[in-house]
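SEQUENCE WITH STRUCTURE:
===
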Amino acid sequence: MPDERALKNPYKDYDGTQTLFDAQGNLTASFAGRITHKINDLLTAMEKGLKSADPRDCTGYTGWAGIALLYLHLHGVFGEPSYLQRALDYVSRSLSLTGRWITFLCGDAGPLAIAAVVYHRLQRNQEADECVNRLLQLHQSVVKGVGNLPDELLYGRVGYLYSLVFINQQFGQEKIPMQYIQQICDAVLASGESLAKRNRTQEQSPLMYEWYQEQYVGAAHGLAGIYYFLMQPGFVVGQERLTTLVKPSVDFVCQLKFPSGNYPPCVGDERDLLVHWCHGSPGVMYMLLQAYKVFGVKQYLEDASQCAEVLWQRGLLKKGYGLCHGAAGNAYGFLALFKVTREAKHLYRACMFADWCMNYGKHGCRTPDTPFSLFEGMAGTIYFLADLLQPMRSKFPAFEI
């Protein structure tokens, strides 16, 4: 039965004869040149389209902070000063903060973190420090869970946590002391234990999380995204808690796998439908790969490889070319697997998805609600194409560490 949400993959799979990159994973000059040319074309189209974008949307997900993050990334890849200036222009628009949410993608933390990094690169250190201090003013309310704060990535504690990690990575130093990160992870663990006991699921999964009364599985709102962060080195204090709390919870997610290798959007959902970063195997892959790194269990890597097969068969989505639920976001799964295994097949598949993205608009895909934004639209596609120029340094934006 054909997948109604995906278009048929027209590409021949890797057979060892294709020459888009060398043995070290460096793209050929001709393919890299094609990508760079397409990035410039798409940037022109994006800038034109943004003239009609919602001036009030300051978020990373669909608003000005996301465009600023794209230009910050392009500056990092190409070193072009004008990109940093564009990042400053857009992040300046994003600092009309609402106070409603505290996360990188959908709240105040993202604009503040991105602004801090932009100012840092411009050597405007006082302004950078002011943004960092404003970001840290949110810390105690995040730890305490003020306002029934959830734990997931888009609107919860983990989304704030990423903001702190982003600062440290981009500054190249521990600008945010590790204790701040560990305090949030402690709060996430306590929250997960509490819900597992309340729902009486602790025997199956010592940690459990909900978003709007649903136990989501994927990266954006669910278990896989939270466990991915809890398994990062140094985030959880004590190997025992990793072994007794996090690993069995990861194994619980693994048991939800469909025969196809895909995963449900929610615990108890029997429909094998969604192959998105936000819901399904593309987001679960990151949890599996991190579990393999931390615990050394080969089954995690085998499950991640099975996710990649799902992506190859069903990852060119009718929803379009974006990050959250599109071909560019799905392609990052191949890059994540390539970085762990160094198997050429995965980089080749990412290149084929890039070829699909470079034929932007020619496949009859749907137009997103915010067609030029980072997570739904063209900006996210550009971000991925730029990352493909440096595969071993690629990271799914606002998520991958």
The mean pLDDT is 96. The longest helix spans residues 29-50. The two ends are 37 Å apart (CA to CA).
